[in-house]
Amino acid sequence: MVNPLNGNRVDSKPSATTEEKADGIGRGNSAPIQFYDEVEFTKYIGTIIMAAGPAYVRAAENAKKNGAIYCRIFITTPGNIDSQPVKDTIATRENAALFTERLYDMTRDEVAEFMEANSRNGIIYIEFNYKQIGMDEAWYQKVCSVLEWDKIKIKREVLLERIRGTSQSPFDPEDLDTINSFRREPLEEIMVNRIFTLYVYEKLDREIPYIMGVDCATGTGGDNTVIMIIDPYTLKPVACMKTPLADSVQTSENIIKIVTRLIPYSLIVVERNHLGSAVIDILKRSSVHGNLYYDYSNTMIPDNIDILDKKGFVRDDPANRKYWGVTTSLTTRPMMMQILMRHVAERKSDFICRELIDDLNNLIQKPNGKIEAASGEHDDVVMAYLIALFVYYHGSNLSRFGIKKYDPRKTISGEKKELSYQDIYSALPDELKEMFPDPKGQAIFSEGATVSSKGSP
């Protein structure tokens, strides 16, 4: 189609029946504005996008010189996770920056800086649910009725969920359905160090010793660095940051800013991999070094050795680095996955974070029983979540960081929380438990009240 007044032309391309034809369609697409419709349902879409890339770059450069518009736009209804078009576009979606309305308040230079730090391909991913575009529950009910209440169609067409078409998921489909129903949009988006976004799902309380799980990536590969913050009393994720390009210095700066500005009593738990070790070293020399988690227990460090030498002196720091953070190993990873399976089965309403739910939907169980992300997908958010929970369940010195296994907020206004001696005993560090017998069946202790035994004052 050609506009006779200004000469603007719209070229429509046919669908590709073979990969060779798809390659030809892409190579011939030398337009400064490229519009792809229903990319997750287009056969050979990956080949088309890759082949059209060089042609677009040339056309875009010419348009920029002439002061004309240039862009690539990809729109789609969510497809089947296991379909080839979705697999072909995973990288495009994962390498894109996630849209935030704070971009409207940024200058051109700030937008460029944001994109450089958050996007590997210069693309930004935008998704709105039906409420965000002004539709109400009456509209939702009407659309559902038109779709004959087909759950798959409603999920895909209305709720924008990508559906897994195989039985490889380690979770029961009904459990995933329930968890997806608890999905929330963030209450707030906080810009950290100007270019990284912290998505907040529950209001943060400066007095709570949150547990911050940090899964580190190099910033150069396909993985993401994730900061997941959970409430130690509810175990719900309350905030999440996910970025593909942050290096060890930027990750450390983000952690320091979040802790000092928002949650000063939080416990920082970093995965001790190659990048994580660098982050730990930076944090040990920062203002938040007292928040950094360490543990000498055999559960956290399966190959633990005595931290003292034969003369009773602490060994050199290189020998003690293993005590900081958490390692994901052949021993600890299965334990983490058991925690995940338990929470999926028993605590479905905890999964409110959209980033966590997306990763959960991407997990598969291999024939050897190992649970991991499907090919081309990621489990970084799940791992950051499990790193925090692993410390909660297996850490031996949480009391040193002010973390208790009950919620002290429930004792305000004179209200007394009933605690058994077993509750108190369970909250003790392992080294103190050895000094007391297991007090099963003993009487109740009420916070703010006197200790009683069998009703005696």
What descriptive keywords fit this protein?
6-stranded mixed sheet; 457 residues
Rounded to the nearest angstrom, the distance between the terminal CA atoms is: 91 Å
Strand residue content: 5-15%
One letter per element, helices H and strands E, the order comes to HEHEHEHEHHHEEEEEHEHHHHEEHEHHE
Question: Care to count the β-strands?
Answer: 14
Largest sheet: 6 strands, mixed
**Rg (C-alpha, Å):** 26 Å
Number of helices: 15
Question: Biggest sheet, strands in spatial order?
Answer: 5-6-9-8-7-10
| Overall pLDDT | 83
Poorly predicted runs are 301-306, 443-457
Helix content: 25-40%
Question: Structural class per helix/strand content?
Answer: alpha/beta
Topology diagram in text:
Blueprint: H1 19-27, E1 33-37, H2 45-65, E2 71-75, H3 84-94, E3 97-98, H4 108-118, E4 124-125, H5 137-146, H6 151-158, H7 173-181, E5 188-192, E6 196-200, E7 211-215, E8 225-230, E9 237-243, H8 248-261, E10 267-270, H9 274-284, H10 317-320, H11 332-346, H12 354-361, E11 363-365, E12 371-373, H13 380-394, E13 418-420, H14 421-427, H15 430-433, E14 444-446
